[in-house]
Amino acid sequence: MQQRFNRTLRSYLWILILIAVFVGSVFHFYLIKRFIQPIQSLIEATKELKRGQYPDLVKVHKSDEIGQLAHQYNELVVQLQMNEQQRNRLVTDVSHEIRTPLSNLNGYLQGLKDGDIIGDQALFASLYQESKRLSRMLEQLEQLKEWDHLSNQTIVVKETHEIEPVLRQCVAMFARTLEEKSIPIRLEIESCKVELHIVGIQQVISNLLGNAINYYEGEGPILLVGAKQEKAYHISISGPSQPIPENEKEKVFRRFYRLDSSRNRMTGGSGLGLAISREIIERYHQGEIGVSPKSASNAFWIVLPR
């Protein structure tokens, strides 16, 4: 009887051992697969990236070291894709915008060379202004590329500044131009501390003031207003000019967009200043920028969070 019991007990023990070994093997296989799969996915994705193709993002199921590695790799792929898109957009924009003025310059220069066109002071001045416009466009493209890069960085560095002296300093840079053109300007600026990138804000204000001066038509002063709001600081720059049509308000902030190409050539406009301003305000400062046309003026405004 005792021997029979021992045999039965041994049989059950062997069965339990076999079940434990089987369950352990399955569990071990599952853990190994779960541990190795992200690494294998990273290896395959890296091979695909090496071939010049952007792979699908690696699925992240854990927050351990492997999960963090996969997460960082995904961010790298996204950043590379964004850089590639910006590069393609920049090349397309440049080739599209520069082709026409270069063709014009080449045509006139070829005509002068062949004797088909007689050069005079007005023609040479026009060609000089066109070359200056191209130079300015290239400078602004470089600025736009720089802000594109900065706005896509994960770490944004801003400092707290008193906004009033910043705005007054920007206006002071145009004092001579305003005096030469006999354009009055009025400032209504409230003091306030705002977190901003000082160089970026100076560039935006300079762009808007430059536009207000270049397109000044009529009488009355250019008005710069800085006002504190509950959770923001509002800046407005307005001046007498031809009002922007309602259906063009958003388009003027597009790259290379111009309301009147002949008018922009006369003032040296490239269609990039407002695009740069939007890049700096919206993507780098998380603020807002827009324009409010009136009957005989345009008011460009900025809202900066504080």
UniProtKB/TrEMBL annotation:
Domain named Histidine kinase: residues = 93-306
Group of enzyme by EC: transferase
Protein topology in the membrane: Multi-pass membrane protein
Q: Name one Pfam family in it.
A: HisKA
Membrane-traversing stretches: 12-32
Q: Enumerate the subcellular locations listed in this protein's record, separating them with semicolons.
A: Cell membrane
Q: Where is the HAMP domain?
A: 33-85
Task: Write down the Gene3D superfamilies for this protein, in alphabetical order.
Answer: 1.10.287.130, 6.10.340.10, Histidine kinase-like ATPase, C-terminal domain
Catalytically driven reaction(s): ATP + protein L-histidine = ADP + protein N-phospho-L-histidine
Entry GO CC: plasma membrane
Q: What is this protein called?
A: histidine kinase
Q: From what organism does this protein derive?
A: Sporosarcina luteola
